[in-house]
Design goal:
By secondary structure, this protein is α/β, with parallel strands linked by helices. The chain is built from twelve helices and eight strands. It has an eight-stranded mixed β-sheet with strand order 3-2-1-4-5-6-7-8, with helices on both faces. The relative contact order is 0.08.
Amino acid sequence: MTSNTTTSHLPAMGVVGLGTMGFSIAACFLTRRHPTIAIATNENELTTTTTRMREYLQKLGCAENIDLLQVSDDYTSLANCEIVTESVAENADIKRQVIAKIEAAVTDKALIASNTSALPITQLQQNAKHPERVLGMHWALPAPQSKLLEVICGEQTSSESADRAIEWAKRWDKETALVRKDVPGFVGNRIMYAMIREACHLVDSGVATPEDVDAILKHDIGSWIGFGVLFQYIDLTRGKLNATVMESLFPHLCRSRELPDVMKKLQEENAGGTANGHGFFDYTPEEAKELDEKFLEYSVEAGKLTQKYFSIKNKQ
């Protein structure tokens, strides 16, 4: 366990589950100088998180904030947290069990957030003592640098809880989006996975290789998405024209509900991408490390560029 020696006047934040996403969320709290209680769900998280976090914070230029981190497997350590975010396995039963453990440890005023990518928040509120304070806070990687934070309301989430979550997100320098209806996948993932499904369909159909698809997206969508995003891009490129294209193109798009063959293959091969060197592309440990570092650097620079130019309508 790491004890706090650096002082902070900010309230404590908690994270349960220290995989890729949970670790990144904890790092975000630390960069904002919150005392951060990180609950490990296995021995590896318990023994390695502090060392990994120290190295990560060093890269972010705030190594001294490691003293604000407490890693434990004891849920009672969460007692004084303002918000506790669960980031455990994408399984509703497991998440509900974790939420029950969090509720037993925190005050009645604490917010309990789920970083689920697709599970309805309403499902996770079942059996909660105070379902009105359970909500979704869906982060993007890397959490310290990414600008977006989706706040998702379940059927029983109170408006006060949503407002508090949004207010904290703004203090962390995040652009918030409130998802007003509890639909699987929320907004970001529904749109992203619709695009991934079509891309996989094109690869499975022999239309293009993963390299070709990535190249096209990089120099097409990638060249305007940070400026015009989606609906404003339609305005920039003439709405009526886009409607005509939709009418002719939609009948040909993939509408399958099955996992694409190319994704089944990755699942069977336990492909972890840069985490284990195997995915759509293979990576040496050195290549994976370099790519991860470049992604972090790119995220920071892309965020600055987006902030500079987005959005004309918000300045009117």
